[in-house]
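Entry for the shared binder. Reason: the reviewer on the internal report wants the predicted structure included alongside the sequence.
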Amino acid sequence: MMSKLKTLIRNKFRYINQIPQIAHYIQNDYKSPKVNLGQIQSAANKYKKGIKNLADVEFQVFSQFGDDGIIQWLINELPIPNKTFIEFGVENYKEANTRFLLINNYWSGLVIDGSIENVNSIKSEQIYNFYDLQASCSFITKSNINELITSARFDKEIGILSVDIDGNDYWILKEINRVQPVIIICEYNSLFGYEHPYTINYKDDFVRGNDYPFSFYGSSLRSAIDLTEKKGYGFIGCNSAGNNAYFIKNDYIKYLSIPIVSAKEGYVFSSFTEAWDKEGTPLRGMDKIRAIHHLPVINTDTGEIERVDAEAIINSLQEAKKMKRF
């Protein structure tokens, strides 16, 4: 009986000594098979010519949606002189637009997050030693963003700037003047539609979900396009999930096999939901827009405070056939 008990315990815990190795493998996912699959997909993307839109080259390794594929396609199309990136709002950097770029293409970069726990987590990973990565802990504001960028000591023309802070994105991007990225990736809020120049009002300590519904944040695609046009960029489209917009510096547009598009042409309504009813059931289609009805926004054309007109946005998206469900 005792012998059987010993055998049972031994079999039950025979892998206990391997736990450190398993944890190490999971943590160091730059060695994982998904990276190898991403490398194969990236190689295939090099031969994709005459694509109709960015969705044709999407694939996901570490990005939240298909942005890894879009980025790989763009850096193969464009003669980017400085292989550098800046991304903020990365949390622990496990899911990010530039992580695969860092690992696969050996770019150098700066990542910024407002949580010291997240930044310490990044610095504890082997990729922080194996690759040229800087991680800075700071809650980004209009007054500190340029100094944070300057501290990275990159040339003014960096390769990619990725802006995703779930809130003051428009105001922070507007403030940045220390770098001129070849590619700008900026999160937009599709619930504002494509016609309205809307953004949330700037607030230094804005935290998504604190004062308003979780789905009320960021800016409209129209506002992001207007802002980047003034900075010398052309809009080439959005990812198919409907949360990231892509802008290319005008000097580099000629190298692309796809054209600049209008807000209406490039707009994508978000496929995911970040809005719920009182019972916690996810809202879909037009109900996501109605969840932010009459909330205060800034019209980036006039600078005036307006109120979200959900029905006007819904009507324009229906007319343009931009919604899969109503």
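Summary line for the report: Residues 53-80+94-105+169-319 form one domain.
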